[in-house]
Amino acid sequence: MGKSFTLRPLRPDDGPAVEALEKQTPDTGLVGFYTRYHHDAYATRLALQPTLVGVVAEVPGHDGLAGMGVMTTGQCVVEDRVVPYAYLTGLSVHPDLRRRGIGSAMAAWRLETARSLLGDDVVIFAGIQGGNTASLRTAARWLSQRLDGRLRVAVSPVRSRPPRRAEGFDVRLAPAQDLEEVARRQNEFYAGFNLYPRKSASDLQEWLARRPFGQPINRYYLATNQQGALLAGVGITLEGMLITNQVVRLPRILRLANALLRLLPPDGQVRRANGHWPWFLPGQEWAAAHLWRSVLWLVRRQATLAMLFFDRLGPVACAISTPWYLPQGSGTLAVCSPEPLNPERPLYINNMFE
Asked: In terms of Cα–Cα distance, which of 351, 350, 353, 331 is closest to 147?
């Protein structure tokens, strides 16, 4: 019996169909949500992830897309070598068309395409939210290594009041003249990490210069001492200026917490600020913590909450924390790598939950 579906690459004219499919297939992890786009879905995804490559599935007689899977590509460090990577995310199948092999076929398409584009040395990985059993089943078919319990995410509502001023510390945006030192400090902090994409000053400058739909969505914040010396830094993408996450399902404990603490807006519409590359000098955990608290105040007009992903065994876990009553998500890192990742090494983890 032949296949009842076909696969093809994601195209620029797929924007409306992509948005419709995402609404039909909210995330199946612990927190269920789908994405509402302020502009065309394809153009927005490409603006947020410029190296995006995607596949879609179509079924005869079905109105719209039957499924979709995407990945982003780049270079990262694995066991002290710079290698190409493909990060897999966003695999979804329409609920009426599941158990037909569509998800498995799209997963295989992504693997074959990653190796075709980047070579056999490519490291392929995906972050999977706790409770997302469908993605775990799919990943089991291709992974060579599974790292459970390493992914953590600090989820914090933006602040309605500024944090108490810290004596001896200032928080400011990174000017262009600081980017050489910022890149050097950041790369030094992540020396020895697996999956870290090294950054140059020009990389950071290009990232900061992006203006999708005329919106300056990227910022880099620094904590300094009174003499102006850099102590800590973090990049922020104001994703909520381009998309809104519509929450449709919460576990009971989060529903209770939300009712008491109002973690989410009443309409369930979340505008996120996403953290990237948090770093701090040795002994400056407190500066990093103060910087993150300050960010929660500084992005209050563009976001409703901020998220920062990190390895629970890495140094960021010692500096960034959320109150006990706020969610601290966890998940699994699925990896297919020619060279196994040493589990003793810290992992660079950035917005990795599928």
From this structure: 331
Tens of pLDDT, residue by residue over 53-70, are 999 999 999 999 999 999
Q: What is the CATH number of the domain that holds 203?
A: 3.40.630.30
pLDDT digits (tens, 9 = 90+) for 206-216: 999 999 999 99
At 1, is the pLDDT very low, low, confident or very high (cuts 50, 70, 90)?
A: very low
Q: Are residues 184 and 319 in the same domain?
A: yes
Pair 122, 209 in one domain: no
Separation CA 256–CA 252 (nearest Å): 6
Give the pLDDT mean for 104-123.
96
Q: Which residues pair with 305 in a beta bridge?
A: 157, 272
Same domain assignment for residues 158 and 69? no
Q: Please tell me the total count of domains within the chain.
A: 2
Output the pLDDT for position 353.
43
Q: What is the pLDDT of residue 354?
A: 36
What is this structure's pTM?
A: 0.91
* Inter-CA distances, 67 with 97, 98, 132, 143, Å: 9, 9, 17, 21
Tokens representing 345 are: 């090494």
d(C-alpha 326, C-alpha 336), whole Å? 33
Q: Residue 63 belongs to what domain range?
A: 6-150
pLDDT score of 328: 60
Going from the C-alpha of 182 to that of each of 165, 177, 185, 222, 279, the distances in angstroms are: 23, 10, 5, 9, 10
Q: Is residue 343 part of a domain?
A: no
Q: Alpha carbon 156 to chain centroid distance?
A: 15
- Calpha distance 43→51 (Å, rounded): 12
Of 72, 76, 8, the residue nearest 46 (C-alpha): 72
For residue 135, the model assigns a pLDDT of 80
In a domain, 119, yes or no: yes
Alpha-carbon distances, residue 352 vs 66, 141, 276 (angstroms): 24, 19, 11
